[in-house]
Amino acid sequence: MTTTDEFSELENLTPEKAAEKLAELAAEIKRHDRAYHQNDAPEITDAEYDRLRRLNTAIEAEFPDLIREDTPSNKVGAAPATGFGKITHSRPMLSLDNAFNAEDVENFVGRVRRFLGLDENEPVEIVAEPKIDGLSISLRYESGKYIQAATRGDGAVGENVTANVATIADIPDTLGAGAPDVVEIRGEVYMSHDDFAALNRSREDADQAVFANPRNAAAGSLRQLDVSITAARKLRFFAYAAGELSAPVGTTHQEWLDRLSDWGFSVNPQSKLCRNTEEILETYAAIGDGRAGLPYDIDGVVYKVNRHDWQERLGMVTRAPRWAIAHKFPAEQAQTVVQAIDIQVGRTGVLTPVARLQPITVGGVVVSNATLHNEDYIRDKDIRVGDTVTIQRAGDVIPQVVEVDTGKRPAGATAYVYPDHCPECDSLAVREAGEAARRCTGGLVCPAQKMERLKHFVGRQAFDIDGLGEKQVMAFFERGLIKSPADIFHLEANDAKALDPLRRWEGWGEKSVTNLFAAINERRNIPLNRVIYALGIRQVGEATARLLALNYGSFDAWRAAMEKVSAERHANGEEQKKPENIGEAYADLCSIDTIGMAVADELAGFFDAENQENRSILDELGKVLDIEEVAAPDESGSPVAGKTVVFTGTLVTMTRGEAKAKAESLGAKVSGSVSKKTDYVVIGADAGSKAKKAQELGVEILSEDDWQTMIAGN
Question: Could you give phi then psi for residue 553, rounded to 5 degrees?
Fold first, then answer.
């Protein structure tokens, strides 16, 4: 046995004594972890703590057969990972809708009441929790043991960061007795102000770039391929939500938080149960007043309906739960000077003005640019080069100009003249009636539009290719290596024949090139919704892309349907205002809940037969990609899974919103219009034209009682 004076107690250590000592160390280190990370009240010095961990490691090295499942060694690092795999969330990790004032909060509570059909006097308990500015993580435990961790990702699929999260000291390895067989715990990984400052000091000393803020530091630290780097940085975790549960845990959110605390998780001590809107707003004000004194960043307060059965009834919209909302704090403001106004051209041709500012720190971030939105915004606020302006970070993220201090305006400052031609390709820039934006008419002739489309294509919510971000896309575009999305997937083959291969470029090497090509090839297999979103079609965001993928299933089916939609729209002209008068495919598209004629027209335009550029892009992508069909959630036990349902008239046992949410939770598609593809029309009192049309088409009509009987038990 190799020993030192420090660990003289290891001499003559028997296996029995070693096992006892390892059990003692595991418990002691866990206790100190909780004291430091949860209670911010360390009981021993860092040196004493480090000695305990070194002693544990030394004993394990001598007696490897005695290493415990709950060993503290798993909290300090492992062999470097080769990359981050993907984990599909068992339940989506959704974002939250935002509230910005008291009226928004009152409206939220009012919507909850209306959706549930509650009496005005019925109390609606709300749990208010500080909104931690960190990185959302989902933890999975099976049979009480930590199994895996995943980032939020796009809400449906996240990155596998299991090994890295295992290094966070205040995340338990095991849950206490009585935990369900499957428990998913969601919360926020963050970095404290003190730890952030210490990290940046160490990076400055090492001549490395510093992090802009604690959130970026936490995210960057967690996404390290070398787990030891993550382990060396002091990340922390607040638990607050549940994902998949094999058995219920309590009947309220407050009970869930109490259970999390019992299991050893940190739960924010400022969380409070509120019984009315007045208490909610008082809690918001109190948390906001104490914001500056907190050891971590928060950017608002989250409100959650306390009762689990009400949460279940409220359900979700496409992007967010109906039972929760985030009340953001007012943006921080500062004054600076507009040094120039530039025009940026987006992927859809929109000319967006940007103010170049004298750099200034706002909310802990150095700001040198701010959006000016459009020409109306500049004109209404009379923003001129040389003006002193008040800026704020909207939602603590996007800088924008709030007002102009005309009293400080320099002599000779002239009103800004908005360009009527694209600054990139000199094509005419037009502003259509009813729109605030002015757009370049050059289309894909415009290099800026091509570039922005490519940037969007590789974005986090689109193809998300490791090692291929905006800077790399710009470099490849400027050298003519990538002109269209499909060119990305020909990079490796073309590079093998190039006179100046990528590995010879500055900043690239054999390993980075190999990793890039591997990441590109990994993305040849990709879900349909990501492909649709990546195309950058106007008004087709993540949520709409997923709806389209779910309704049409495959890439070929979606494309064929959209080409038919385009042909019908072209044949019937712009004067038609009713989907059913335009064509069957067009009407089917508009029948998808939340997709109206505006979105349908954008899709029709993208697939126009005259737009050969877009069709060529789709042809090429179809050749290089293996596009996965997006199947509806498995609701094999549901009698309405895969069925299309329309609700009409006044319902008695449920609100319209509640009926829709329940149907969707059972795998049904809820439509706003009746067609021959409709399976059921559920009618309430005073059902009108939809009931009549169902009769004409021979669609099965159900009373509210019939519907409740059909879905009973589900």
Answer: 80, -70
Kindly state the tokens that stand for 471: 């800077």
CATH of domain 333-440: 2.40.50.140
Distances (CA, A) of 50 to 10, 41, 229, 521: 17, 17, 17, 43
CATH 3.30.470.30 corresponds to the domain 98-328: yes
CATH 1.10.150.20 placement within the chain: 446-523, 529-628
Segment holding 665, helix H or strand E = helix 656-665
| Contact in structure between 112 and 305 (CB atoms under 8 Å) | yes
Reported as a single tens digit per residue, the pLDDT across 139-172 is: 999 999 999 999 988 788 888 999 999 999 889 9
Provide CB contacts within 8 A for 418, sequence distance 6+.
Answer: 351, 353, 375, 378, 438
- 131 in catalytic set: yes
For the entire predicted model, the pTM comes to 0.57
Are the CB atoms for 558 and 549 separated by under 8 Å? yes
Separation between Cα atoms, residue 111 and residue 105, nearest integer Å: 10
**Arch. (CATH architecture) of 446-523:** Orthogonal Bundle (1.10)
For 533-544, b/e burial (b = at least 16 CB within 10 A) is bbbbbbebebbb
Helices (H), 308-350: 308-314
Considering the segment(s) 529-628 as one domain, its CATH architecture is: Orthogonal Bundle (1.10)
Of 21, 75, 86, 131, the active-site residue reads 131
CATH architecture of the domain covering 5-75: Orthogonal Bundle (1.10)
> Average per-residue pLDDT in the chain?
85
In this structure, whether the domain defined by 644-711 belongs to CATH 3.40.50.10190 is answered with yes
